[in-house]
């Protein structure tokens, strides 16, 4: 059985016991979270978030890419979130690689450079990486200055969230 | 108290009872999920995913943008996922807007067109939107052809996942 089929089985059970009520499209806690795609950060457990509470924007690294900024803009302007948090984490896959080496290696493996991402967003300083994402979000002309934007590191060994102060 | 402070409080409790063990950076079920950022889809409940199981890539709409493709490439080539699923959902914020109208409205609201996303990725046909994302992922030169990519619609009223067949 493929994993997708296993998820469909799990979903059948979920539907039978569905009790989330009628949740609105606008997040109840008016929060958007930008975080890494890492499998070890599940927001319901780690942050006490419940269905309907917050937008969850996630990519490799938890980077404020153009696409993540698009999502934050949609989140605030269309769906009225009023607070953003950014989460990077220890033991991130992108902490262990070098941008150029990765591009060269994958182009060789795949037999073509076509389709290579413009940036992988590899990084070597975790806290500085969080600060860089804070800067990108806070300086965006379509993100109003009154929105609080805070940054955190999630420790995958302890489950603890630590705040990173903006520079 | 800000929502971020509430999450930090919730996280303190989580850390006290932390029992996830030593989870590896490579997702145990070798799966990557690309889904909308919508607050109503919590994967632990809806899909039976556990911490450590799968990469979670999420943006406004659940769109296979360049950034989402970057994340899928990192997920497969660096962290060995072998199966992808794409999830869009009913009552999506991007189903209710028109690309040009949105851009004009926000440029006016913010007093500048600078920083406008190149695309908002608004759409008007939910199933066709899923098929479009399937096409983008499957046709990418750096996504190997042997990786199964399946698409789904999540119904926010019932919690049910329905498969969308690729065209």
First CA to last CA of chain A: what distance?
A: 49 Å
Radius of gyration of chain A: 18 Å
Number of domains of chain A: 1
Sheet bearing the most strands of chain A, described? 5 strands, mixed
Oligomer: homodimer
Number of strands of chain A: 5
Q: What is the typical, i.e. mean, pLDDT of chain A?
A: 95
Order of helices and strands of chain A: HEHEHEHHEE
What structural category do the secondary elements of chain A indicate?
Answer: alpha/beta
Summed up, the helix count of chain A is 5
- Helicity range of chain A: 25-40%
Second rung of CATH, namely the architecture of chain A: 3-Layer(aba) Sandwich
Largest interface (C-beta under 8 Å) = A-B, 94 and 94 residues
As for the CATH topology of chain A, it is Beta-carbonic Anhydrase, Chain A
